[in-house]
């Protein structure tokens, strides 16, 4: 089963501390060795976003953030046998944030991916 873990947090924290980036790289390498991490990346701030918005019969192209309280800042895609596995890996990543970035607040949303594999 494929899952995506989406990291959300305020963007006023800036870039993560180097120690967090280093620790996350190690965690991602470990998950890749197990063959379960398919993709992961950080995203540029939502101020750089382009949104295609549909409202009823109207469609518009808008630049910048959507006004969402906690924009998406990063993601990881996993291929695991059970949901509990992706929860385990996501919890480890969030714990690295907690221990390596004092004062940081955020959440990770885990959702199963449906449809053909890429």
Layout of helices and strands, plus pairs?
Layout: E1 2-9, H1 18-33, E2 37-42, E3 50-55, E4 58-63, E5 72-79, H2 83-100, E6 106-113
Antiparallel strand pairs: 1-5, 1-6, 2-5, 3-4
Helix pairs in contact: 1-2
Cα-atom radius of gyration: 16 Å
Question: Which class do the helix and strand fractions yield?
Answer: alpha+beta
SSE string, helices as H and strands as E: EHEEEEHE
With strands numbered from the N-terminus, the spatial order across the biggest sheet is 2-5-1-6
Count of individual helical segments: 2
Q: Describe the main β-sheet briefly.
A: 4 strands, antiparallel
Strand content: 35-45%
Please give a structural write-up.
With 118 residues, the protein is of the alpha+beta class. 29% of the residues lie in helices and 36% in strands. The protein contains 2 helices and 6 strands; from the N terminus they run βαββββαβ. The protein has a 4-stranded antiparallel β-sheet with strand order 2-5-1-6. Strands 3-4 form a two-stranded antiparallel ribbon. The chain is globular, with a radius of gyration of 16 Å.
